[in-house]
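Re: Re: token formats

Sure, here are both.
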Amino acid sequence: MLRAYLDPISVGPGDRVQVMVSTDASTYRVEVARLLHGDPNPEGPGVLDQIVDWLDSQERHPGREQPLCVGSWLELPAADPWPASFSLTAWVYPTAHTGRVQVVASWADDTNEVLRLEIGEDWCLHGALRVGGTVHEVTADAEIRPGRWHFLGISFDSESRMLGTFSAARGASVFAVNRVPISESTVESAAGPLLIGAQRCEGATLNAFNGKVGGISLYDTALDDIDLSDLKNGAPPRGPRCEGAWDCSREISGNRVVDISGRGRHGVTRNGPTRGVTGPDWRGSNDTVYAAAPVRYNAVHLHEDDLEDADWTPTCGFTIPADARSGIYAVRICAGLDIETLSFVVRVGEAQGADILFVVPTLTWLAYANFDARNKHDIGLSLYDNHTDGTANYYATWHKPTSSTRPDLYFEVEDGGGAAPKLDPMSQGMEEKASHLVMADLYVIHWLEHLGVAYHVIADDDLHRRGAEALLPYAVVVSAGHHEYWTPQMLDAMDAYLEVGGHLQYMSGNGLYWATSLHPQNPHLMEVRRGGGTATSEAEAGELQHSSTGLLGGTWSDQGRAPQQLVGVGMAGQGFSRAPGFHRLADSYDPRVYFIFEGVEADEVIGDFGLNLRGAGGFEFDRIDRAEGTPSDALLLASTVEPPETYYRAMEHGVGRGPHDPLVRGDMTYFERGRGGVVFSVGSITWSGSLSYRDYDNNVALISTNVLRDFMRRGSPGGSDR
């Protein structure tokens, strides 16, 4: 067994990379390599990398297994002292249909559990309380069924010695109440906090609750039926003292659970439950964002497979040297027969000595991380997965073990879109596999190496953090492969760069698509809530607004920032069989773009070959759309040639497929903007996979190189040609 992750994923000279390893092997060794090409397809250069001496690759590091805790919960301070009589209440909305025990509340320490409230295998509410050294149990007979809000809780009256549980579905006027007499009157105490949604034992999460929880409160008396009814209807009881009332609609971007009782017993969320979710007061009204009606969002959604941070101890690490070349690198970990490879980006300290900047789509790496894993619910989900309860996953974290940033992975459609190593480059049909993530990004790296030009790379995270400052020193910015996830800060940066005279060479498909957030305080966390586009799942009704930043989710097109406005093309469709090439159109003979096609014959099919799906116009592809914002003066240079009938429109554009639907196509376009800004776009993920075909002696490489060299000649914004 070998699992690992890195932190951080993007580094510069002087920065330290921490390596977190968990293995059952007694020792392991680590080496670092600069990656040049990852695809073993015999039609290309093959797998190429260079070992660097940033650490001793022969050193044997002691191996050890590190625990991985999945499942989220709330941690609330227990009243001190705990009231002799009490009522603990909450609204819950179960979402799992497993029929197993799910803990709603637990109060315990290392030696004993004092209180437990759970939904049993019979879907009934079970309560247990340790009083006078004995655990007493009580059950309310009414079922707590998934997909409906229930107001429920547990109470104890020390004078009458009555222990009770109670529940009522939202909209019901009658409570299911069961109170039983017990012989003791003194509730024992526990040193631990009050947990909502799970039990904890020796670092593990047990019997985790799947569903929403909100409106949690603790009173210093056993509420009677009238008080419970009032509280259920939003009117706190007048007599009893409130020992805690936790409002999950406040401070949604953080992990604090605010106590509004005045007692100051603020709690925390643990392990990344979903915030900004609809609560029991949400009625499907026009209040679709929590900022407009916070009271309707008094809930968190707990999942048994949530993971915010594995929080492993670093087992080794290394520092990036001052003279390190910018590029894509990988840490290769060898433990017995197990090998794990984790990629990362090295940027430069100062943007000097290069005209070209390649923005590596690392947010796409993160979005897909563990999409290929068979045990994903145990090690952290990708943004393409649903939780075990069937609800969409909104968050992804770099702080989890993953194999998805290996450079030897391809997109395996038949396996549900997962990735698998290309172990046998001569296997039949391998040339028709789809490449994306690190492997596809290395097509660009090797092309630049082949040209012998100086270049730098940065990660999406760097562009988000530094903005236009990261782009302005460069004559050419290259975006390629699967550059799908953009934050508002990234869009603003690229827009500013082009407006002042920058040059963008965009060779990507399905780009600038989903509105994306990086958590301001926890930049290892990424948030995407899908709606209105081509997606594997969608956000729940009323939950499109990001909890981390307040950004409204969905596609950027739905936000009025369609990719066509910035790069001329936007998502048109997808297909995973052999990709078509492009044919030139009338605009390609415009004198302004003569330089692009210099050396290309008029009747040539462009890119009907390649390492990635055997063609330059496939996987996911983008086209112009004037209604979405493609500039009116943009030149349509080329379009894909008769895509196969296995290529379909993007879902948001209706129903259609190739080869006869004119909207199922990828486009090549060129336009100018701002003070000398220029954009050349080819809307296809597989375009870069055709670059190295026949040792770069092909028209895809020729066109791409023509554009690159012309943009280099024009110089960086402001005319400072370096």
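Second one below.
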Amino acid sequence: MPRWWRTHGLELAGVALVALCLAWMLAGLALVWAHPLLGWLPLPVSAALAVIATVRTARDPRLDAGTRRFWRHLTVAAVLFTAGTVGNAVDAVGGPLPSQLLSPATVALYLAVLATVMWALLRLPSWQRSRADWIRFGLDSCMVLVTVGALVWHLALRDHEQWTAQTGSSGPMLAIMLSAFLGVATFVKVGFAGAGRLDRQAIHVLAAGCAIAAAVGGLSPFLADRPYLSSSLLAVPIASLTINLAAARQWHNGVRTPATRRPARQISWLPYAAVAVTDGLLLSTGTGDAAETTAMQIAAVTLTALVVVRQVLALRDNQRLVEQLRRYQHKLQHQAHHDSLTGLANRAHLEQHLRTRPAGHHVALIDLDDFKVVNDRLGHHVGDQLITAAGRRLTAVAGDRGFVARLGGDEFTLVIPDTVDAGELLAALIEAAGAPYELDGHTVVSAASVGVTTTRTGDEPAEILRRADVAMYAAKTAGGHRWHWFDAEMDRAADAAARLSAELRDAVRGNQLVALYQPIVALPGGAPAGAEVLLRWRHPEQGLLGPDAFIPLAEGNGLIVELGQWVLREAVRQAVDWRDRLGERAPGRISVNVSARQLADPHFVDFVASLLRDSGLAPETLVLEVTETAVLAADTAFDQLHRLKALGLRIALDDFGTGHSSLSLLLDCPVDLLKLDKAFVSGARAGRAADAVARNLIVFTDDFGIDAVAEGVETAEQAARLHEAGYRFAQGYLFGRPVSADALEQMLTVTAVAAA
């Protein structure tokens, strides 16, 4: 059996039976059938096909419970319909002569079918509607009832004596009326209330079938002189076929998501169609039948009143819709010009404001320092709260003295009129931004870096913001928590930095990078314990450049990863060379700095592992130094550090004491070595307080089993004080400046000879 027949066999069989019954009916109009029973045989078969189709759909496990329940009800209706069809056939050909009589049992079965279908329809889930929607629905339903009632009166009820004489009861007439109402009710149900997860096209097929079957059933008066024919011979197969097709549609499509509710139509064709139908009936009745004329007049007046009320409601709804559109337009305009998080003006509003301001006013670009650290450590929700709180503070400080806007992220702008003392306002702004925030149970300390520029004639908003941005980065580079005016020298410096950044890309390929080594020694004697690799750039024009001149540029353009890989390769190569040539005199530890970008690189750990594997260097020889800021800046830093630790490398926390949440990092990071920042040893802030910090930190490192290295040791007195505090390793100019590999090797040789 072909696959298409197995899939669509029920529908094809139903179509064939309808065609057969139609041919029988048409032929019966021209001749008298000697064996009318043959014409009734396809009817129970077509009804049985409908039963099979509904049972198959009701058992489909893909459908939800509500949809399967509907098709179970349709199965019951189809079974009753099959029984009614058999009863109808017995009534027609079971006697000595063909008849169009319907027994009470047959009529009861047909009415039970209609009641079951109506019950199934009423149990379908519906959308939630407003009170106005229900009022419109009630008016439209009344129009439908009046119009259909007028049609039934005109086409059926006025000739009810003839129908009763023909069929033996008024039951068929009632069945036809209910069928017509059922078709209309089905359309209304689908069009207004929805059909849950039921296939909408299946409901349309059922509605069309009910309406067509009712219309065909209304042809009975035209067959009064042909008792061997009946309108049921065509109405029953059509009704069965539509049930069959609807069930097949649902079965083929499976479960479906409820359709999105369509907005209520403010202009409906229904009132006008109802009036047109009723007016047509009124005109067609003439004046011969006063009772029918009166009935049609009552229907026309009733419909006119309903239409008037319906249109008044539509006019009121239209006015309400216009008001809603105005409010919505105002809301959209506000959203287009304001930031959704803070409610401040956004970039578009700011640019519009700048274009309307005269030259000479000031524009400040405000950036929150270390916002990313807060966002990463405490979560984005706290970051959003910080942005919102900062926006409120800026607005409160500015008051009516400036126009505050948010550009995005952690950047704000303040437009200051030339009549306002900008210095006083900016000082108050810096102070307010630096005050602690209480956010979600956390005390957050932030600050602001501010760049300020004065507008000139012909300035575009983009150029104004660019200058303010350059000045803001100058303030941030100077340490943050300050404001800085833009001047032309900043542009020249920015151009120079851009050129240097472009030239840096050729440094690796041009063999311009240089690795220097600064010794790390053991206290108190100063015996070599290792070395830290420090990168320099031998610029062809500017000479040897320190890291401060190009590392920030590399971090900005992403080249820091490539530079970091070069340093690691060079460090591993040199360590292997020293191991092979110097043996025990080779440095025991080689330290390499790792940036936040490298920690964020998902391939970084694999790169380090391949270096160690290919070189044969013992993993414990390599020490990777990371700063607190780098660890906090990379979301995957902790995971990366644990993976590196698993390779056997040692992890050092560099510049300890200058970042955020330092002590908590000792708990979270797999740290082997802590490097005390030189600010606590020999910096401008070194003193009694710094000594206290250094002494207390060594207690923590001892308790955690972590080695400590003091950086920036410049005098013997500092070295002695650190050793007395408990430090066993140190690094600084006292023990050696950064030198080449050959120079460090000579230092190691001299030290070894002196020790011997």
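The chain has four domains: 3-256, 265-337, 347-486, 501-749. The first strand starts at residue 362 and ends at 369.
- S.
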